[in-house]
Design a protein that fits this description.
The complex is a heterotetramer of chains A (112), B (174), C (514) and D (143). With 112 residues, chain A is mainly α. In chain A, 65% of the residues lie in helices and 0% in strands. Chain A has one domain (2-49, 65-99): Orthogonal Bundle (Helix Hairpins). Chain A contains three helices and no strands. In chain A, α1 packs antiparallel against α2 (24-45) and α2 runs antiparallel to α3. The termini of chain B are far apart. Chain B has helices spanning 2-21, 25-45, 49-72, 82-106, 122-125, 128-132, 137-145, 147-167. Chain C has a two-stranded antiparallel sheet. Chain C has one domain (2-512). With 514 residues, chain C is mostly helical. With 143 residues, chain D is an all-alpha fold. Chain D has one domain (3-142). In chain D, 71% of the residues lie in helices and 0% in strands. Chain D has helices at residues 3-25, 34-52, 59-87, 112-142. In chain D, α3 (59-87) packs antiparallel against α4. The chains are: A mainly alpha (112), B mainly alpha (174), C mainly alpha (514), D mainly alpha (143). Chains A and D meet through α3 of A and α4 of D.
Chain lengths: 112, 174, 514, 143
């Protein structure tokens, strides 16, 4: 059970980063950390004791397989995470060019 | 197995905390890399080689993009105004406390790590290979049982690229 | 008939990819093709509205049940989803038609139409899918397309608004993914009907309540309900007008309100305290949204705050229905209040879309959004004035228009369900809405003389045809929709949507067959 | 970049590219598949651009070219999905209509290898376009 608590704790560190940090890049890092922790949490759920990767090789298939469904979900979630991070970084550069800083406090209405 | 995962998780949590607290943005991004590559190793332990492969390459490319962004701009983070940030920090810690408390209460009745009861994926494991014909069951699930997700998935990457191209164009209005 | 359901997602997707390729060579291809695609989809959904009995279930990839467990992804088309599809595609078509001339002021027109088609495809995908993770994937597609569209004109405040919207939207999507993980952990299946079956069998545990809270906060943020509304005023006021009319008219409904309804009616059992929480959030958004809107002078920010309060009406109507069902009061009152909520959902999409299009027309001609510097446009822009007059009257609930009827139903249902405080609040908020929209009308269109507009170097005259057409069409719709009160019309459109929510069991039997 | 980096890149780039193609083609046999292989191919190109500097390639043309490739690759993906509806005779979206073949062989999983190739091209072109967009933005801003 400790493993799940640590994974959710990593998620909460991401939330801490997003809420508290003033720097745009730190916020983007916070969101990316949250994405990684959710992906890990999903895979932790699908793990079966001493199960191996779900690939059928030709020898006698008596081995226990890990659950392939969370792996399909997480593959999608990783690429979604990449998509959001790329868009966030593109906007962060434009804001940096317009304001000359990554800090939220200078940027007018980005509070909250 | 569980011990290895716990060690990796502690390492990743340390990397995450360091990356959020680091003054220099470049070291923050590098520390963020610890979390990403720690995740790759966790995937390998948990029997998910597909994901480890995708994660390691995607993580490298994200790091390259982040470093390109940072080298275009400043590397130090402005530190001022302690009053406001501590208020937010206290708020965040309260939220973290509540979340963990409720999470712990909610999940004590659930299956322990490792004995996961399969219901939907029973169908993917037993006859899986025969019906989709692919030896790699995960690819079978991705492209055949849940191909609709992957269609949405590829479109999301396409949307992100068009979004980046629109945001990074030079002149917005005529 | 069943084989045409995937067209709702495949056609806009194919359209988006074709526009992305052909758009570079053929300049005007994007605008025409988007309007054709969306017109086809509107007609198709109208056709299905009239011919749909019960619900259509479509397994993707042709996989049968594996000893009574659904293993593939199912697309479910029942009364509620066809109702939403009609709204999405209708407002989508009108906004696309409106933006044919509005977007000429921007560069990269082709990307605009690609992202527009992708947003519509994402929303159609969310409304149609019966699988929890699939809803997340299409929700993310519509959300990323809307992040990029909010930042379309690369000005300072648009980039900030888009960044804030994306950070909050990203956090809420991750909450949703986390709760999907919890539900998969508890029920180890992803199909909505299957999850409700397993939860019914296993009995509600602490985890179900915990994931309900996270889901409600995640989708609450997408539907801009009160504790999570921070992103809405910035995002909706700085986006290009057809996009903000799509955003507040359709996106917060298809991604926010619809999924809350689907999950809390068809997946989880209707429990007393969750419906109480939903009703409280609805009333809070209704009241605080309108109070925030009074002090605004920028037209679009005022309209954005009003979206929050009108969404509060919708959630209030549905919340009262849930409360009555949870205390298993008589179903007629519950059906009436849910009908009121859903009817207001359609009305709000129509008149809020129209109001944003009017604000866009005013900005297109004069380039000013601040009401203090506007005035006397009625003599110069007759069409915009008349359509915005009809929209303002219907949002503040003046009899002949549709807003009045839907608010009336919600208030009657609140009284019948003996929640007198809520009905008084609803009337009070409607009066304040009337006051603030009179202010809008007086300042933008009527008080000063119009001739100084004509003397200005680009003379202010009426907006081009495509914008007028969409605005007039929506204004006519404002009147036509009040016909939904007539029982014969109501049974075709509104009652199947309400039944889809009231008889929750029927949703699961249609998929699982048992 | 120094001469050493350039020389090493010239050698490695080909191997990385080949490895990416191997991962895509054998997606349904060994771990990996469209997403992983596509990302590896994009990594090969990014390495090439990083080591040889951006003025070496005419970036602007590259970017439009790769975004064009990306949209056509995902269109191929959608066409295969819709083709299943028409050819499959039963008219079911995303059905695996090609013969399945024996499990372990290379040509074995019906439509899945085609999906793999389409998604691989799409992911490679997508990541490359994002990276090129950032570089072009940096050059134009510096100018």
């Amino acid at each position: 059970m400790i493993v799940y608590i640590l994974a959710v704790f990593l998620f909460l560190i991401g939330i801490y980063g997003v809420v508290v940090k003033r720097n745009l890049i730190k916020i983007v890092i916070g969101i990316a950390i949250m994405e990684y922790s959710v992906n890990l949490f999903l895979i932790l759920i699908g793990y079966v004791k001493d199960g191996t990767a779900p690939i059928i090789t030709d020898q006698v298939s008596e081995i226990v397989f890990v659950d392939p469904l969370p792996q399909a979900m997480v593959l999608t979630a990783i690429v979604i995470g990449l998509a959001t991070t790329a868009l966030l970084l593109a906007i962060a550069i434009r804001i940096y060019k317009k304001y000359g800083t990554f800090d939220i406090r200078e940027i007018k209405n980005l509070k909250g | 197995m569980e011990l290895l995962i716990i060690v990796m998780l502690v390492l990743m949590i340390g990397g995450a905390i360091f990356s959020l607290e680091a003054r220099d943005l470049l070291s923050a991004v590098i520390a963020y890399g610890i979390v990403g590559f720690g995740l790759v190793i966790c995937f390998l332990f948990l029997g998910a080689p597909d994901l480890a492969l995708v994660q390691i390459v995607v993580e490298t490319i994200t790091l390259i993009i982040m470093i390109t962004v940072i080298l275009n701009s400043t590397r130090e983070e402005v530190k001022k105004g302690w009053k406001k940030t501590t208020a937010y920090a206290v708020l965040a810690f309260v939220f973290i406390g509540f979340f963990l408390y409720f999470f712990n209460r909610a999940t004590d009745t659930l299956t322990v790590f490792g004995d996961h009861a399969m219901r939907m994926s029973k169908a993917y494991l037993q006859p899986g290979a025969a019906e989709t014909g692919s030896a790699n069951l995960v690819t079978g699930v991705i492209f055949d049982y849940r191909g609709y997700d992957t269609l949405g998935e590829a479109t999301i990457l396409f949307t992100a690229v068009i979004g980046v191209l629109t945001v990074l164009r030079l002149k917005g209005r005529k | 008939m069943q084989y045409f359901i995937p067209l709702f997602v495949a056609v806009p997707l194919g359209g988006a990819f074709l526009i992305a390729i052909i758009g570079n060579f053929l300049k005007g291809f994007g605008k025409i093709f988007t309007s054709i695609v969306l017109a086809f989809l509107t007609g198709f959904s109208l056709y299905i509205v009239f011919t749909l009995q019960g619900s259509l279930v479509y397994g993707i990839g042709g996989w049968e049940l594996f000893d009574k467990i659904p293993i593939a992804i199912y697309m479910v088309l029942d009364g509620l989803s066809i109702y939403l599809l009609l709204i999405i595609n209708l407002i989508g078509f009108l906004s696309a038609f409106y933006s044919i001339s509005y977007i000429q002021k921007f560069t990269a027109e082709n990307n605009y139409y690609t992202l527009f088609c992708l947003m519509v495809a994402g929303m159609n995908g969310v409304v149609l899918s019966g699988d929890l993770f699939n809803i997340y994937v299409f929700l993310e597609m519509a959300a990323i397309a809307s992040y990029a569209l909010v930042a379309f004109g690369i000005e300072k405040e648009e980039l900030e608004a888009s960044f804030k919207y994306q950070v909050l939207g990203g956090v809420s999507s991750l909450f949703i993914l986390l709760s999907i993980g919890f539900l998969y952990w508890y029920t180890s299946t992803l199909n909505i009907a299957d999850i409700s079956k397993v939860i019914a069998k296993k009995g509600g545990s602490q985890l179900v309540v915990f994931s309900q809270v996270i889901l409600l906060s995640g989708f609450g943020l997408k539907a801009a309900m009160i504790p999570f509304h921070a992103w809405l005023p910035d995002a909706h006021s700085s986006a290009p007008s057809p996009i903000s009319s799509m955003l507040s008219g359709v996106l917060i409904k298809a991604i926010g309100a619809y999924v809350i309804l689907r999950l809390f009616f068809n997946m989880f059992e209707v429990s007393y305290n969750t419906s109480l929480v939903i009703t409280i959030i609805g009333t809070l958004s209704m009241v605080i949204g309108v109070l925030l809107a009074i002090g605004q002078w920028d037209i679009k920010r005022l309209l954005a705050y009003h979206s929050i309060s009108q969404m509060g009406y919708v959630i209030l109507g549905v919340g009262i229905g849930m409360l009555v069902l949870a205390q298993n009061g008589e179903r007629a009152v519950a059906a009436l209040s849910i009908a009121g909520g859903l009817f207001h959902l359609f009305n709000h999409a129509v008149f809020k879309g129209l109001l944003f299009l009017n604000a866009g027309a005013v900005e297109y001609e004069t380039g000013i959004r601040d009401m203090k510097r506007l005035g006397g446009l009625s003599s110069v822009m007759p069409v915009t004035t008349s359509t915005s007059l009809s929209a303002s009257m219907s949002i503040s609930g003046i009899p002949p228009f549709n807003g009045f009827f839907s608010k009336l139903i919600i208030i009657i249902a609140a009284i019948q369900a003996k929640y007198y405080v809520l009905s008084i609040l609803a009337v009070f908020v409607s009066i304040i809405t009337l006051a603030s929209f009179l202010k809008v009308q007086r300042f933008t269109f009527f008080n000063k003389k119009g001739e100084n507009w004509i003397k200005r170097e680009p003379p202010v005259r009426e907006v081009p045809f495509t914008m007028c057409f969409s605005m007039v069409f929506l204004a006519v719709l404002c009147l036509a929709l009040s016909m939904l009160i007539v029982p014969s019309v109501r049974d075709i459109v509104l009652t199947p949507a309400v039944d889809a929510l009231i008889e929750a069991g029927e949703y699961t039997t249609s998929i699982l067959g048992y | 970049m120094t001469i050493i980096v350039k020389k090493v890149t010239q050698i490695i780039c080909g191997v990385i590219f080949l490895y990416g193609i191997y991962i895509i083609i054998h997606g349904h046999l060994t771990p990996g598949g469209g997403f992983a292989g596509g990302a590896i191919i994009a990594g090969a190109f990014i390495l090439l651009i990083l080591s040889f500097g951006s003025e070496f390639l005419a970036l602007k043309k590259e970017e439009t070219g790769s975004s064009l490739l990306e949209s056509s690759a995902i269109l191929v993906f959608l066409v295969i999905a819709v083709l299943g509806m028409i050819v499959g005779g039963v008219g079911i979206f995303l059905v695996n209509f090609l013969p399945k073949g024996t499990v372990g062989k290379l040509i074995s999983a019906g439509v899945i290898p085609l999906y793999n190739i389409a998604v691989g091209m799409e992911v490679a072109a997508a990541l490359l376009t994002i990276f090129l967009a950032l570089l072009i933005y940096r050059d134009e801003v510096l100018k």
